[in-house]
Automatic annotation (TrEMBL):
Domain NPH3 intervals: 94-367
Protein name as annotated: BTB/POZ domain-containing protein
Pfam family, one: NPH3
PANTHER family, per database record: OS12G0117600 PROTEIN (PTHR32370)
Keywords from the named record: Coiled coil, Ubl conjugation pathway
Residue ranges of coiled coil: 407-441
Keyword Metal-binding included in the entry's annotation: no
Family, per entry: Belongs to the NPH3 family.
UniProt KW Coiled coil keyword: yes
InterPro entries: NPH3/RPT2-like, NPH3_dom
Length: 495
């Protein structure tokens, strides 16, 4: 304040030796510029002294001093860690950055831009941006204000500024998620949102459901709760990355490609969980749900139980949708990839169309038949072309899974298969026993069968009397042939 006052009052050396202008300038050079915290504090005071502080060049000097001293501090800390063989800690890397959130947005942007240009590490930049975002955006609390309100404009400027300062390397997805949600509710620019969505898409395999549940910027009650278009763009960014890796893998061996191709299975589970969450929204259109469900390629879902659960929730929450929409929703489910528990549930689910129930029963019958015939490769999915796609470098047996892990997985699947076959054999034995028991009870309970048994017993008694009469040998005629002629005829008649 004295430095700005001396400039305003022209208290320079031209009027008096060691005037106020000279004394305040010496104090700033000796006590403020060399110290990072003092520079940040004085720069914060300059916010109330504009435009005088800008006119005398004090703001530029302080910004440059903070950036230079921060990079020197970074170098000193690195050398100290190397000398003592210690791991880097947050307190030694950006302790001074904890004070930066007191600055206004403009000064903060100028300091961070200068520090980045002078070589500030990206990890340090990320940590500082996280602290500033938490303190300036109320901990990423989602607030829906009028787009033209002052608070909404302030949050929009903060988000756009922080996004412009993000380093090129991946940053924690929790920071990206918080910024994207705030950008959505404050109507940030499309360029800002597109950058955030692209960054989240590049590391979507690290996200959880809460990270991608972007709220829609609508206060009306008849609008959906979540912005499904944003999720669609995020997922498309990830799939485009996967396709680029596939193409590059054909030319050279990319060390990232096997990992990315296997992480798509994790992304499929994330998407199915996301669909289960948004399915509970009464205002969600079936077309939006179907569009998201069909974004993933066929090879991404090994099991479709998660998608079936999401569809079932949607049908339960939206009981009055058209039959064509109901059928379109269920068409996204590959019945061949449903587990046995899901097939049992689907066969008894009255919310599903009849066509799907018949399809589920058909594939279940094929699966049981293959299990009884020992069809190991077709037992679970009902198709020998599954569960893994025939693409270069993907699926088990590729570079993504070691032979040892692959062998252990095959052994585990064989054990599960043997147990399932044993259970099926036990069920078949029980069914045969029940069949025999029911047949016996049916015979006992039928009146015609009782009359037949009574008639048979009476014929047996008559036969016994005839045998008693024919015990005495006959001398005449036919001998033994005539003696047993009637017995043969009786036996023939009964048989």
């Amino acid at each position: 304040m004295l430095r700005c006052a001396s400039h305003h009052l022209e208290m320079t050396e031209d009027f008096s030796e060691k005037n106020l202008d000279h004394r305040t300038e010496a104090f700033i050079n000796d006590q403020v510029i060399p110290n990072i915290l003092n520079s940040i504090s004085v720069l914060h005071q300059c916010e109330a002294l504009l435009p005088e502080a800008e006119d005398i060049g004090l703001v530029d000097r302080l910004v440059s001093a903070i950036a230079s001293n921060a990079c020197k501090e970074q170098l000193t800390s690195s050398l100290s860690r190397l000398e003592h063989n210690r791991a880097p800690t947050e307190t030694t890397s950006n302790w001074w950055g904890k004070s930066l959130p007191i600055l206004c947005l403009e000064f903060f942007h100028r300091v961070m831009s200068a520090a980045k240009s002078k070589g500030l590490k990206q990890e340090t930049t990320t940590n500082i941006l996280i602290d500033y975002a938490h303190k300036s955006l109320e901990g990423f609390v989602i607030v829906r204000d009028d787009v033209d309100s002052e608070s909404s404009k302030k949050r929009r400027l903060v988000v756009e500024t922080i996004v412009g300062l993000l380093p090129s390397r991946p940053v924690p997805i929790i920071l990206l998620s918080g910024l994207l949600k705030t950008a959505a509710t404050s109507s940030a620019s499309m360029a800002c949102r597109a950058d955030l969505e692209r960054r989240i898409g590049l590391q979507l395999d690290q996200a959880i459901v809460e990270d991608v549940l972007v709220p829609a910027n609508h206060n009306a009650s008849n609008y959906p709760l979540y912005d499904t278009d944003s999720m669609s763009r995020i997922l498309s960014a990830y799939l485009n990355l996967d396709e680029e890796v596939d193409e590059s893998d054909d030319d050279d061996d990319s060390p990232r490609s096997p990992k990315l191709k296997n992480l798509i299975f994790k992304v499929s589970k994330l998407l199915d969980s996301y669909l289960s969450e948004i399915a509970q929204d009464l205002n969600l259109a079936p077309s939006k749900f179907v569009a998201l469900a069909e974004l993933l390629p066929d090879h991404a879902r090994v099991v479709t139980d998660g998608l079936y659960r999401a569809v079932d929730i949607f049908l339960k929450v939206h009981p009055n949708i058209k039959e064509s929409e109901r059928y379109r929703l269920c068409k996204t489910i590959d019945c061949q990839k449903l587990s046995q528990e899901a097939c049992t549930h689907a066969a008894q689910n009255e919310r599903l169309p009849v066509q799907m129930a018949v399809q589920v029963l058909y594939f279940e019958q094929i699966r049981l038949r293959n299990a009884m015939n020992g069809g190991h490769e077709q037992f679970f999915f009902g198709s020998s072309n599954f569960p893994y796609p025939q693409r270069s470098g993907s699926g088990p047996g590729s570079g993504a899974i070691s032979p040892r892990d692959n062998y252990a997985s095959v052994r585990r699947e064989n054990r599960e298969l043997k147990l399932e076959v044993a259970r099926m054999r036990m069920r078949l034995t029980d069914l045969e026993k029940d069949h025999v028991t029911m047949k016996q009870e049916l015979v006992k309970s039928n009146p015609a069968n009782r009359m037949l048994r009574s008639f048979t017993r009476k014929l047996g008694k008559l036969g016994f009397l005839f045998r008693m009469r024919e015990v005495k040998p006959r001398v005449s005629g036919g001998g033994l042939e005539n003696r047993f002629l009637f017995q043969r005829r009786r036996r023939h008649s009964i048989s």
